[in-house]
Amino acid sequence: MNSFVYDIPTKIYFGEDQLSHLGPELSRFGKRVLLTYGGGTIKKTGLYDKVAAEIRAAGLELFELGGIAPNPHIDSVRKGAEICKKEKIDVLLAVGGGSTLDATKFMAAGACVDFDPWKFLSEWAPIEKALPVITILTLAATGSEMDRGGVISNPETQDKNGRMELPMLPKVSFLDPSNTYTVNAYQTACGAADMMSHIMEVYFNMDQDLQMLDGVMEVLMKTIIRYAPVAMGQPDNYEARANLMWTSSWAINGFVNGGKRQAWSCHPIEHELSAIYDITHGLGLAILTPRWMEYTLDESTVSKFYQFGINVFGIEASLPYMEVAKKSIELLSDFFFQTLGLKSSLHEIGIDDKNFGIMAKKACSGGTLPGFKPLNQQDIENIFKMCL
């Protein structure tokens, strides 16, 4: 069992009617606030007006950067970093889903350096400091509200890279489930698939670690399976939205990792899909994950699939291990493609095999992807083909 350090000092305001704390929290870091957001939904819902009112009531100066796209692009990061430098911004406030939050984290880091922030992701330039970031979450999916990472796309190079560094960890996050009532069924489903994958990337691991962490992950996955369909059918069901929102945070804030050191598999593979085709990240993960499971299932890994099947899906424990393992993959596929209604193949979303070689090579950096089962370029190409 490996030793580990756990340190997540993000302050959380969870629930309704918490925005009265926004002004005082922002004021702890200065007077000049850069508000970042996506396509403008927060203006239609009235959240923008509430946030702006709290900022002005606290006597703070407001600057804005809207239009941050899904699969956020480096151009938005560059713009935000330049605004921070020009306007001497003290604190950034990200209002939105994971794309807005991710981009804002890199803006905060980019504001503290004199080079192109893409170098953080292309050359691994050091991230030694960042301006403080506060978040208001409107979509439960990425967990960016309570972790130190983000993923940014560069359409010019067709790259999508992620990185996690402590200076980018949000100082404060406001998690009001009612702010996710307007999330449509499709995005709720994609968010659920993303959360499931975050947990499964850690759960499917043959390392010996704290048993209680496996139990926590199993409950988190069962929570997603239970409440995602409810939220899709009843968008304003507070219990469902609250459970999904809190699960999103705990799926990827580092707690369930314990001492596990294994690299992730499905995320780096999916990043190549959305880098080229700009598909929704959660959809790509839903298509990839069951095929990755089929590809990595063998006698050396079957015990983990068996554990997953009986503890998450309630499959009869007396059945043979391999039978339980295969049934667990079937049930996960049914959840993604039947219950959540997501497309089940790359062909259905207009993706063919012409870029598989390029994507597979990038996913493993031309060598081996050291995940649950090590995957080389040919392995990854094979998984892509299974997804057609």
What does this protein structure show overall?
The protein is of the alpha/beta class and 388 residues long. The chain has helices spanning 22-27, 41-45, 47-57, 74-87, 98-110, 119-122, 185-203, 211-233, 238-252, 266-277, 281-296, 302-312, 321-339, 356-363, 377-386, and strands at 11-14, 32-36, 61-65, 91-96, 133-137, 149-154, 159-164, 172-175, 368-369, 375-376. The protein contains 15 helices and 10 strands. Strand 6 and strand 7 form a beta hairpin.
Q: Distance N terminus to C terminus?
A: 39 Å
Radius of gyration: 21 Å
Order of helical and strand elements: EHEHHEHEHHEEEEHHHHHHHHEEH
Q: Which geometry do the CA atoms define?
A: globular
Q: How would you state the average pLDDT, rounded?
A: 97
Unreliable runs = none
Number of beta-strand segments: 10
Our estimate of the beta-strand percent is 5-15%
Order of strands, main sheet, comes to 1-8-5-4-2-3
Query: What level of helicity do the residues show?
Result: 40-55%
Count of discrete alpha- or pi-helical segments spanning 4 or more residues: 15
Q: The biggest beta sheet, please?
A: 6 strands, parallel
| SSE-based structural type | alpha/beta
